[in-house]
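lol ok so funny story. i was supposed to be doing the assay writeup but got distracted and ended up predicting the structure for this chain instead. priorities right. anyway since i did it might as well share w the group, maybe its usefull for someone
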Amino acid sequence: MPLDLLTLSAALLAGVMGGVHCAAMCGGVAAGIAAGSVPNPPLRIALLANLGRIIGYSLAGAVVGGFGAGLLALFRIEGLALGLRMAVGIVLILAAIRLLDSRGRLAFLAAPGALLWRTMAPLHRRLLPARTPARVFALGLLWGWLPCGLSATLLTAAWFSAEALSGAAIMAAFGLGTLPIMLPLTWSGARLATWLARRAFRVTAAAAIAGAGLLTLTAPWLARIPAVHDLLVALGCRTLPG
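and the output, tada:
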């Protein structure tokens, strides 16, 4: 089945615009990995750690997407797949709101991840200092499971995608979107962070993500229009009425 380009694009954009938040949330982790990896080349450390982080996101997405697929296979409820597609749309709208949540009203979304991180934190400490490339990569894998309201929101979308490959792709797209900020920390990255922090950019991106969510949510009805149906199919939208 084709991957849903609407959802992947929204996840990528959420990662790009959420990169400033990620820098604030994960900056200490990034600094700790870099400090513990001396005298390894900084660029290699940055690449390995962020590669591990994106793979960590992807693995999490595959796990929850596979779990969603298992639920579909187990219950076999008519219309459940369509309902999950609409749920993905709602989650994307929530992700757009999360980008504009400067006061942390949606911080509770990270609560499940915080519980999981408590069980993984001892392993994280055992890998420090990261004197070898293998340890740097392993720390990056764990870094991908660090609780974050935005990543948890996209992880919910990965779950509702009800497919391991789609779930992994959604989280990989999100992780790739964060790279311009989280691949530390060149002059261009710092300058981009300044631009992305501007409210006009965040509002524009949030509107685009919300638009993708709204289109995903209303796709079952829009698909009744032949021309729109063909467009949605081309974008990879599945579980639509014929």
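The chain has one domain: 5-178+189-234. The CA atoms of residues 52 and 141 lie 4 Å apart.
back to the writeup now i swear
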